Amino acid sequence: MKEITSMSAIAISEKIRNRELSVEEVVKAQLETIKKREPLYNCYITIMEKEAFEQAKSVQRKIDSGEFTDSPLAGVPVAIKDNICTGGVRTTCASKMLENFIPNYDATVIDRLRDAGAILIGKVNLDEFAMGGTTKTSYFGITRNPWNPEHTPGGSSGGSSAAVASEEAFLSLGSDTGGSIRQPAAYCGIVGMKPTYGTVSRYGLIPLASSLDQIGPLTRNVSDCAAALEVISGYDPKDSTSFNINKYSYRNSLKSDVKGMKIGVPKIYLEESLNDDIRSCFMKALKTFEDMGAIIEIFDMDEIRCSVQAYYVIACAEASSNLSRYDGILYGFMAEGYEGLDELYKKSRGEGFGYEVKRRIILGAHMLISDNYETYYNKARKIRNIISRAYAKAFEKYDVLLSPESLNTAPRLDDDNSQKKKEFRSEILNASVNLAGIPAMSIPCGTDKKGLPIGLQLIGNKFDEASILRAAYSFEQTKPYMRPSAIEDNLER
Amino acid sequence: MNSYETIIGLEVHVELSTASKVFCGCSTRFGEKPNTNCCPVCMGIPGALPVLNKKVVEYAVSTGLALNCTITKECMFDRKNYFYPDLPKAYQISQRYSPIARNGSIVINTNKGEKAIGINEIHIEEDAGKLIHDADNNITLVDYNRSGVPLIEIVSEPDMRSSEEVLAYLDKLRMIIRYLGVSDCKMQEGSMRVDINLSVRKAGAKVLGTRTEIKNLNSLRAIARAIEGESKRQIDILESGGSIIQETRRWDDSANESQRLRSKEEAQDYRYFPEPDLAPLAVSDEMIDRLRLLLPEFREERIERYQKEYGLSYYDATVLTSSKKIADIFEEATRLCNMPKEVSNWLMVEGMRILKEKEIDPWDMCLTPNRLSDLILMIEQGKINRTQAKEVFEKAFLEDIDPKAYIEKHGLGMISDLDTIIMTARRVIDENPQSVSDFKRGKTKAFGYLVGQTMKAMQGRADPKAVNEVLQNLLK
């Protein structure tokens, strides 16, 4: 038998439901793998060992009494990005600010996972408050890429992607504000989806930018992704921005058939300074789709050119407000040795936040002062509307849009500044999707010369996750599963 | 000295009396144990999200309609960002860019006659928690029960010219809101809070002077004093050649003066932007029409009707409707006992006297229509006399007391038993032979004395008519 932790989520759940494996055996195996690999990869901030065994017992009891027969995640260990609130378990946002924050409630996605019989195995690393693309800004240390530990797993959901790729979890939840699920999924050779804004409840997600944030799954294959999305999605009266539409069976869209599917490729993506390996891999992917009977067309969509600028204004502005509550009074690290209220605020925030977080808070606050509101924030909102309309127009013609997920593969961890500018530009591939509130996913489509994974981005129309899942599933059937063999080699070192 | 004109506009915060808070399901009850009416949402626990209470929107729209405003059909909420320990999220959800209602007006009455005061806007927002300073231990505590309690802020145009007009405006505003039933508007409990914007200019000048904002006004008296004080302060500055600085001032009522809180330069930039956690709020025409139909009968209409329906004088109808609570008691008690004049008299004479003497808000009176009607019927049936009834009325007005039970318990009822009266009268006759012989010699005055003595012996609880008859019979 294949090693337990190497199997897919739905495969392991089926074995559990067929009584071939007990939930406890799976949890035990998962914790063993975590203990073996964690010293190198550092995916987790908090491992929920005790809670996991307790959950295992109760889930097993329910399975034995005939529950969870159609629950694709029953008994499956899941890792949770540490910006999603778990009642009674600390939720740090990878920040000193929330080092000791223990929420008194569960996020809605956590409720849904529990209701589906999934096992919460631990809380995984991220860039501090999800700000960054490397997971290097975490207060809890860097996370390493399972394909090559000298490289970043991406970010901000770097712990989520590395845990799934290193088989330290069957699947994970991440959050995506401007690519934070898709880019680390691409860097780690796994599947990551950012659903349509409003599909998954944000209740309990510690916000970065409320109008852009969306929770989504990171998995090892498209089928797991559909199953996880089915569990976590759906209307939540506690989130006023969640959509009141019927729950959709995403698993039904897993059909290997793209014949006649109209696929658009925005030209602007190809004009970016793409790494050669990525370009050729992307072209091969287009060819694969064509071979399967899809119709590929390259088209102009220049409206998204300003998406990075608009994204930064909106994301920083909202973040500056969302992060104001960490002032040392009710929430957040409280500094010592202050005189008066103002100094308490300044010291607590000055000492509690890392550099990148402070940079964005200052930028955001600056852009919101009344003299700047029109120049920055309102202009960004207008650009946002233009981008939304451009996508809406594109989807009148195409079922799915394709682009490379990033301009480069995972950079080295010690690669500091040279990458920064390119990374920034790389966000054009991701951020416009969040601005438009549409769904997108990244699936692996090959590796570069160094053996690092390359991601393919599939973008869909609002609430049309079905089309991108179908396209992704079809594409996946043409490729063998990409497992990072390094996860075993590295342990021998 | 030059003559000056004072220009005043008001910002009035009114706490809405919905059962639950504006963005969560917590209770809004006043006076509960600190930090018990709280949840992740109103405590601003990271990750929690607001959900708008529909009732709050209805209350705000109704108020807008009652104040003759235009209702904003597509409205949004905005975040007002600032740091303070009573504000858990470090921002207040408010409405900066599209308030729920705009461009209204109400008519006030003063000695100079009627005057329309413009309403600039009404917006919905959430209240903050409350700081409690413990001076003994030199610490500050925070109670978040009030955090998230719904408020509307009613911003007037700078249309008022004197404290008299301001008080008339506030009185009218409070009356309308209480008739609507959307708030109890109690200044002492903070459910109605008033900030004043005031400037002065030379009589006849066209341009407005620089204004100051005055906060911390806890009573109508303080408001009147603050207006007089601030006008004088500004005029004195101008008269001595100085100029007014735009600033926020805090009224110190015990010192009878205002102190500078912060200047315009020191004022915070609240970095308003649209609240991304709430979807835009659409107010439908259907909702507006429905709420318009549900608007209650206001004071003016009741004054009319009371004159027609109950034959009351204009004056009586005016006094009875001065508070919705009294007007409602009047109508319901009248329905129960069918004696409008009696009900009106009790409320007008005794009721108004108690309100004035005890300085209480009609909103706080305990009397119910049932109890007033019972009391009146007992008088009518001779079960209690008027003197006693007054005592019982005052009790039932101020406390939660049932007149029937109270009269029984304290033995206040009339003694209608004839034997008791006869026995007492006989004793009085025996004890006063002089008066008896005076009476028999034709001194009518002596009879009155005997009646009085009998009444006295019965602690006034006998029907004077019955005592009269009994004595006449006995002395025949």
Question: Can you give a write-up of this model?
Answer:
The complex is a heterodimer of chains A (493) and B (476). With 493 residues, chain A is α/β, with parallel strands linked by helices. In chain A, 41% of the residues lie in helices and 13% in strands. Chain A is built from 17 helices and eleven strands. In chain A, strands 1-3-2-4-6-5-10-11-9-7-8 form an eleven-stranded mixed sheet, sandwiched between helices. In chain A, a hairpin with a 5-residue loop joins strand 10 and strand 11 (453-460). In chain A, helix 2 runs antiparallel to helix 3, helix 10 (307-322) packs across helix 12 (355-368) and helix 10 (307-322) crosses helix 13 (374-397). The model of chain A has no long low-confidence stretch (mean pLDDT 94). Chain B has 476 residues and is of the alpha+beta class. Chain B folds into three domains: 4-289, no CATH class; 297-409, no CATH class; 418-474, Arc Repressor Mutant, subunit A, CATH 1.10.10.410. The A-B interface holds A 84-85, 91, 93, 98, 101, 103-105, 107, 202-207, 209-211, 237-241, 317-318, 320-321, 324-325, 327, 329-331, 341, 345, 365, 368-370, 373, 377 and B 40, 43-52, 79, 81, 83, 85, 88-91, 142, 269-273, 276-279.
Describe the structure in brief.
The complex is a heterodimer of chains A (493) and B (476). Chain A is an alpha/beta fold.
User: Measured on Cα atoms, how large is the radius of gyration of chain B?
Assistant: 30 Å
Helix fraction of chain A? 40-55%
CATH topology of the domain at 4-261 and 475-492 in chain A: Amidase signature (AS) enzymes
Q: How many strands, what sense, and barrel or not for the largest sheet of chain A?
A: 11 strands, mixed
**Could you give the order of strands across the largest sheet of chain A?**
1-3-2-4-6-5-10-11-9-7-8
Number of domains of chain B: 3
Unreliable spans of chain B: none
Structural shape of chain B: elongated
| Gyration radius of chain A, in Å | 21 Å
Helical residue percent band of chain B: 40-55%
**Total number of beta strands of chain A:** 11
